[in-house]
Every structure is written in C-alpha cells, then in structure tokens.
Design brief:
About 65% of the residues lie in helices and about 0% in strands. By secondary structure, the protein is mainly α. The chain is globular. It starts with 12 loop residues before the first helix and ends in a 6-residue tail after the last helix. The relative contact order is 0.15. The mean pLDDT is about 95. It binds protoporphyrin IX containing FE.
C-alpha cells in the first residue's frame, strides 16, 4: 500500500452479512421460524396469514438499517416504525419473541458471533421501543 492510499473503510454490517442475498436469507429464516416454532405463536398471530408482504418490508427496511441501500425509504418514505406498529398490541412477550426469533435465525445461519451480538444489542433497542402496552 502506498503512503497515499487511504485506509480501507470498515465494512458495513450489510456487507458483512453478504449484501442483499445475505439479508434476504436472514429475513427468510426469521419468518420461516416464526411460522414453525410454537414458541413464537403469539408473534405469528399478529401477522397476516400470507407473510410475503411482511418479508419484503423487513428485507427492504433492514438493508438500509444495516448500512446498505435505502429500499424501504424509497418505497414508503420515513419508516416511522413505532407509528406503523401501533395497530398491533406489543408488550414484553411480543418483544421477546421477536428478539428470540431473530437470535435463532442468526445462530442457525452462523452469523459471526461478534456481529450477531452487535446487531442483537441494536435490534433490542428498536424492539423495546416498539412496545405500546405494559406487560
Ligand atoms: C417488538 C416486536 C415486534 C412485533 C410484535 C412486530 C410485529 C409486526 C407486525 C404484525 C407487522 C405487520 C406485518 C404486515 O403488515 O405484513 C410489522 C411490520 C413491520 N415491522 Fe415489526 N414487529 C416487531 C418489531 C420490529 C422490529 C424490531 C423491526 C425492525 C428492526 C420491525 C420492522 C418492521 C417493518 C419494517 C414492518 C413493515 C412496516 C410497514 O411498512 O407497514 N419490527 N411488525
């Protein structure tokens, strides 16, 4: 490397997950598990019978949230995530099922532990902020 070469930029979480195909795989596993596992039944029941719309929206959102292309914003504008979740009753149990489902998806796809932990911490903040009922 010559003295004039700028240091390589740190890869974004989006890049570290494998870009769009990696984020899609994570979102697909998340909804697959939500559908499959009895432990996520309360979370599943809040969602429509056909999960394909939910799947696309979470994929578009996470691409931008992870430092990749802003697909969600370009389609729907500002995410206003908390407002968009107000129609659903979200308490501690719903938050914890969402988090557990995402943690299981990341573990099953062998997302590197340090990255998975970093994402889990950030996602927890977002999931907790979505609560709109006590308990
Ligand atoms: C805390 C527990 C959560 C519950 C119970 C929950 C539940 C839901 C439900 C039922 C929908 C509607 C699905 C549909 O219209 O097909 C939804 C939409 C969505 N959720 Fe969540 N969610 C939670 C947390 C999160 C988190 C942490 C994120 C982001 C990291 C997220 C991102 C989204 C997005 C982007 C949408 C689509 C919004 C729209 O454009 O209408 N959710 N969620």
């Amino acid at each position: 490397m010559s003295a004039n070469t700028p240091p390589a930029a740190e890869p974004t979480p989006f890049q570290r997950l494998g870009g769009e195909p990696g984020v899609r795989t994570l979102v697909d596993r998340f909804y697959y598990l939500m559908d499959l596992e009895p432990g996520y039944a309360v979370l599943r029941a809040l969602h429509p019978a056909d999960l394909s719309g939910s799947r696309d929206k979470l994929f578009w959102f996470l691409c931008g949230w992870l430092g990749g292309p802003a697909h969600y914003e370009s389609r729907f504008g500002h995410p206003r995530l908390r407002a968009r979740h107000l129609p659903y009753s979200i308490g501690i149990q719903e938050r914890d099922q969402w988090m557990q489902c995402m943690l299981q998806a990341m573990a099953e796809l062998a997302v590197p532990e340090v990255l998975a932990q970093r994402l889990a911490d950030a996602l927890y903040g977002t999931a907790d902020w979505m609560r709109n009922r006590g308990g």
